[in-house]
Amino acid sequence: MNAAPSDQRALRIAARALARHGLAHAYGHCSLRLDDGHFLVCASQPMGLIAPGDPGTVVPIFGALPAGVLGEVRLHQQIYQRQAHVNAVTRTMPPSLMTLGTARRTPRPRHGMGAYFGSGAALWDDPQLVRDDDRAAAVIDAMGSANAIVMRGNGVLVTSDKLAKAVVLTWYLEDAARIELAVLAAGLQDESVVLDANERRQRATDAGGIFERMWQYLAAGDPEINIQEESA
């Protein structure tokens, strides 16, 4: 199966956006579901170095990884196998989330952007690389119904129904981690208000172009975005 040029291009833009905003460095990858049996993962190189035209690889949702695909892409496979509503996955190394993860913490929903993760991201309490199917399945089991899981000392996974939204949610979760660290550093963890379930439901809205506006910011300046898209 071949991926459409538009899907290849969208995935490259997403990968570079993650790198441009410090959410990934040499390590990390993102993917896009193509159909019930396949997904497209970005090129196996630092996402910020993916050039216009560099193709991603089509990966079977069930079956062995193709040659040259990074081992932790098994995590993407397990998500797509188990969660039919998920159409995009980011696997990144955001610094504030990495810091919290070493303390077995995930950000609490203290501000608007944190509301999109319910009561909080899940936690995988193991710093080892995930390069076999059993370990990948265990991570996704631990993720449960959450849309993100922080992996202790090993970054984060974020899922969504849309690729641009997955990138935006990754930025939101890192911002929530930044707030969490600032609250802890200031000794305000008891005074800082955590959003309750009703507040989270009201705030975690898609309306008003919230995701589109942040995507415009994150993707701005990409070499494969045209002027019309940047000003949309």
> Helicity range of the residues?
25-40%
CATH superfamily membership, which one? Class II aldolase/adducin N-terminal domain
Q: Give the number of helices.
A: 8
Question: What fraction of residues sit in β-strands?
Answer: 5-15%
Level-2 CATH architecture: 3-Layer(aba) Sandwich
Number of domains: 1
List segments where confidence is low: pLDDT < 50 over at least 5 consecutive residues: none
Q: Taking all residues together, what is the mean pLDDT? A: 95
- Give the C-level CATH assignment: Alpha Beta
User: Per CATH, what is the topology?
Assistant: L-fuculose-1-phosphate Aldolase
Radius of gyration: 17 Å
Spatial sequence of strands, sheet with the most strands: 3-2-1-4-7-6-5
Q: Can you give a write-up of this model?
A:
38% of the residues lie in helices and 14% in strands. It is an alpha+beta fold and 232 residues long. The protein has a single domain (5-227), classed as Class II aldolase/adducin N-terminal domain (L-fuculose-1-phosphate Aldolase), CATH 3.40.225.10. It has a seven-stranded mixed sheet, sandwiched between helices. The chain is globular.
